[in-house]
Design brief:
The chain is of the alpha/beta class and about 210 residues long. Helix content is about 20%, strand content about 25%. It has six helices and 13 strands.
């Protein structure tokens, strides 16, 4: 488990914590480890720009970002190469599933705008483990959307730096970044590495105390 410093309620799971979206035992262990409710809010992720405000636990429908102003209600997304983001303010938390399609669709500015429209204020963001530019090989159709974030994989093919793109979209928030690539780390689930169906979870919550 990875917990970014300076956050009151944020944790990024690893493969060791299992897929806590669907594995209830893994979710219970994760929840006990950080001292939160075992009843989480989550969504059916679709690589778009829909944002949902969570007022209750359970599956809230199709979206790629969730925010809540309710203390004690954990919100979660799952990733296995896409970039997980946790956003935090004094009165709000949010989680974001940001793959390249979601970034192009505008999921990051969409969640920032939705939180502001709800009258809450974000102060910081944490970017969890995602696939690095070292390994995120893409074709021309994807690269065309990321002209400012092009690079090369360690094997010499075109890649994009999705973390850098997301970081720029989070400005002017303070941003913490996990130094981990899902493709190269055996401690993390990676769809590109072995086509796993499992996902590590990013969970955020407002403390009740």
């Amino acid at each position: 488990m990875i917990q970014p410093g300076g956050f009151r309620g944020a944790a990024f799971g690893t493969a060791a914590e299992g897929d806590a979206r669907v594995d209830l035992a893994a979710r219970a262990a994760f929840s006990d480890a950080v001292g939160i409710s075992k009843s989480w809010s989550f969504v059916s992720q679709v690589h778009g720009a829909t944002v949902i405000e969570a007022r209750r636990p359970g599956n809230l429908g199709e979206a790629d970002a969730i925010f809540t102003t309710r203390p004690g209600l954990p919100v979660a997304v799952g990733t296995a190469d896409c970039v997980p983001i946790i956003l935090e303010g004094s009165d709000v938390v949010a989680v974001v599933h940001a793959g390249w399609r979601g970034v192009v669709a505008g999921i990051v500015p969409a969640v920032i705008a939705a939180v502001a429209a709800a009258g809450a204020h974000l102060e910081r963001a944490a970017i969890g483990p995602g696939i690095g530019s070292c390994c995120y090989e893409v074709g021309d159709e994807v690269a065309a959307h990321f002209s400012d974030y092009l690079g090369k994989t360690t094997w010499g093919t075109p890649s994009i730096d999705l973390v850098a793109a997301v970081t720029d979209q989070l400005a002017p928030l303070d941003v913490w970044i996990a130094a981990a690539c899902t493709y190269t780390s055996e401690q993390l689930f990676s769809y590109r590495r072995n086509r796993t169906t499992k996902r590590q979870t990013a969970v955020a919550w407002l403390p009740t105390g």
